[in-house]
Amino acid sequence: MDTQNPSAPLRARSAIGGDKPPSRATAHPQHRAHPTAARPQASGIAHENTRHTSRFTVIGNHLTQHQELSLLAIGLACHIQSLPAGARADIKTLVARFPEGSTRIAAALRELETHGYLRRDRERTPAGRIITRTTSCNQPGATRRHAPAPNPCASGQVAPAEPQPDASPSVRATSVRATSVRATSVRAPRKLPHPLPAVPHPAHPAPALLQRATNLLVALRHHDPRLLLTTHDTAHLAPGVAAWLERDVTPTAVRHALTSDLPPAGPRRPAALLAHRLTALLPPPPAFHAPTGPPPPLQNCDTCDRAFRAPEPGHCRDCRAPQYAA
Known about the structure:
Order of helices and strands: HHHHHEEHHHHHHHHEEH
Strand order of the largest sheet: 1-2
CATH topology of the domain at 61-179: Arc Repressor Mutant, subunit A
Distance between the termini: 150 Å
Shape: rod-shaped
Strand content: 5-15%
Helix content: 25-40%
Largest sheet: 2 strands, antiparallel
CATH architecture of the domain at 61-179: Orthogonal Bundle
C-alpha cells in the first residue's frame, strides 16, 4: 500500500470559467468525425497573389479551366488575348515565337475557333491581295447570356466587353482595351476587270494564219511601247487579225489601222482599243471574180512542200507573207 505508481493519472481538475472543455455531446460534428481536420492541409496548391497595377490582362476562368480545350489551346488563347490590337497572330508568327511546330499550333487555333474564342476571316484588300483577319473573343457566350442574339464570334457581329462593376477604373479601362473584340474593317467591293470586246473570227482559222496574226500583235510594241499586250490579250485578239489577213489585207495595212491616231496620253486599255478597231474597221471580203480560163496547175511549195495553184513553181501564200513583211 505504500508503493506509488508515478504513471497514474492525477485527479481531474475542476474547470474554471471558460476553460471547461466541450463535452462529447456539444462538440462540433466535424471534430467528432475527423479529429485531425483542423490541422493545416499538407497537400494542394497555395496561392501567393500580388495585385497587378500595370501590364496585365483579365482572363476568365471559363477559358483557363475549360473542360474541352487542350492545354496548348488555353495557353495560346491567353497569349492572343494579351496581344495589343494590330499585332500579328498568324501561324508563321506563332511558330517563330513558341517552340511548338506549325501542326500543333494550327490544331490549337482550330480548337479556339470551334469553341468561339477565335475567328479568322479571309478578305480581299483594294489592291487585290487576300489577307486573313484574326478576331479574338474573350467571352464567346456573353451575348447569349444577356439577350437571345446570335454569338458575336459566330455571326461576325462585334460586341464590346462590359467591365466588372467591382473593378477599379484603371482595371476596367485596361480590361476593355485588352480583351474587347477587335473590329473588322469593312470589306472593299472587289473590282472585276471589264471583259474585252468581241473580235471577228476567220472563216478558216488555219494554224499558220493564226500564228501570223500573233506575230503581228507581238510586234506592235516595237512600233509603240504603249501597245505592250499580255498573253491573254494576244490570244483574244489573234482571231480578229487573222480575219483581216484572210480578206487579203496586208500586214502593213493591218498594223497601220491598229496604231494610227492613238490618243496623245496613250490608251488606258490597249487591248480593248485594238479589239474595237478590229471590229469597227473590218474591211469587206474581196470581190469574187469568176475564172475566165482553166485554173493554174498545182505546184509544190519550195518551203513547206504544200500544194498550191500557181502558173510557176515557187512559194505558197503563207510562206510568201513573212518575206513581204520583212
